Amino acid sequence: MMNRFRKWLYKPKRSDPQLLARFYYADEELNQVAAELDSLDGRKDPQRCTLLVSQFRSCQDNVLNIINQIMDECIPQDRAPRDFCVKFPEEIRHDNLAGQLWFGAECLAAGSIIMNRELESMAMRPLAKELTRSLEDVRGALRDQALRDLNTYTEKMREALRHFDVLFAEFELSYVSAMVPVKSPREYYVQQEVIVLFCETVERALDFGYLTQDMIDDYEPALMFSIPRLAIVWPLLPAHPRTCPGATAPMACRMVARSSSGALAHPPVSRQGVISALLRPLPELPLIHLRPHPASPQSPLPL
Fold first, then answer.
1. Helix or strand or coil: residue 20?
2. CA distance 242 to 8
3. How far apart (Å, rounded) are the C-alpha atoms in residues 253 and 233?
4. Neighbour count for residue 145 (Cβ, 10 Å)
């Protein structure tokens, strides 16, 4: 009775732009759609059921979006780290992901199983139940505060938000990892190393004049062949500071020819020839044969 009286007396205006007021009406709309969905027999009216499910997920997206804005304002320094999101495939990272995760957590908590992911579903179910309970606590705390003071965030509400944020981040990583391939820390580290290697290669090639800025700005197709080859050959050329003792241009060419599955089928013998070949598309590589190495005239040097 007291809650009804407080709701009637302190209910925020629908036009109020403050976050707690916006949350109050977004949450109210979500409850209305959920109530209608629960009372509907989907077998009798499948079209209406499909429409309500779509509307329900849209309302979930809206509620979570406002909760995220509240957390950014309320606990900006205590947000759970989400660096793992960079490992997700590009098509996964979209604005509706949070709503899909909430929907998935409720399904798992209710006993559903992800198709062809039975073991992962069972492993995630305790976390899904804890997450849905935490989200209900957050929604209750925000609704209650919206009927008290729109300008104040209590410590109890902050603590509920911190706990929810940690659980949601943990569930996000677990759920997405179960649904799509996600790079391991080692794979991601190797990818970053290759990116750094190619960037340094481009910088050196620009310094030596083997590439031009116009080629990069114009996305010259030959660069797609040039950069990986330069990255492989550069440390083996005599002028490179980390060249191993005794390395020669022919030796570098042989190594590239062997290690890149024929990327340089007929490598040139001079340093300038190496660079010229690297900057050409595959069909245009010159038909130049290796000179015998002085140390072994009968056979190429062992790698």
1. helix
2. 77
3. 7
4. 20
**46-74 vs 19-39: helix crossing angle, rounded to 10:** 160
pLDDT digits over 84-115, tens only? 887 787 777 777 888 889 988 998 998 888 87
Burial zone of 154 (CB within 10 Å; 0-12 exposed, 13-18 middle, 19+ buried)? middle
State the amino acid at position 25 in one-letter form. Y
Q: What is the pLDDT of residues 138-177, one digit of tens each?
A: 999 999 888 888 888 889 899 999 999 999 999 998 888 8
Tell me the three state secondary structure of residue 277: helix
Tokens of 174: 């677990």
In angstroms, the CA 201 to CA 106 distance is: 49
- Cβ within 8 Å of residue 220, ≥6 positions away: 214
Structure tokens at 283: 């069909």
- ∠ CA 87-89-94, nearest 5°, is 105
What is the sign, positive or negative, of the torsion defined by CA atoms of 207, 212, 218, 222?
A: negative
| DSSP 8-class letter at 4 | H
Q: CA-to-CA distance for 61 and 291, rounded, in angstroms? A: 67
Is there a contact between 198 and 228 (Cβ–Cβ < 8 Å)? yes
Contact 242, 200 (CB under 8 A): no
CB environment 250-289: b (16+ within 10 A), e (fewer): bbbbbbbbeeeeebbeebbeebebbbebbbeeeeebeeee
